[in-house]
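Schema walk-through. Below, the input block comes first and the output block second. Nothing else is stored per chain. Lengths vary across the set, and this one has 112 residues.
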Amino acid sequence: MSTPACPQCTLENTYPDGANFVCADCGYEWPQEAAAAEADEDTSVVKDSNGQVLQDGDAVVLIKDLKVKGSSTVLKMGTKVKSIRLVGGDHEVDCKMDGGSFMLKACFLKKA
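--- output ---
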């Protein structure tokens, strides 16, 4: 298991010391049990704009026009997207549409 980044300064120069992790840069110490519990909580729930829980394979509808960065393409409001895939990160939903493959934020979607 690799050591986690420091929760205080977010640098990755940490090491285990007994029952704690220690940051060599800022000197912050935190228990290893807290880091293990935090790793278990990473399985987050993705919700759409109405608060409905999204799952892999769901169909969703865009609730507003979205401009595609680096392109003149616009994804139109009301477009139905079938068979979404949930991924981690800022853009939680990966999908394929006529215009190509896109990663979207769940706050711009509603479950169909």
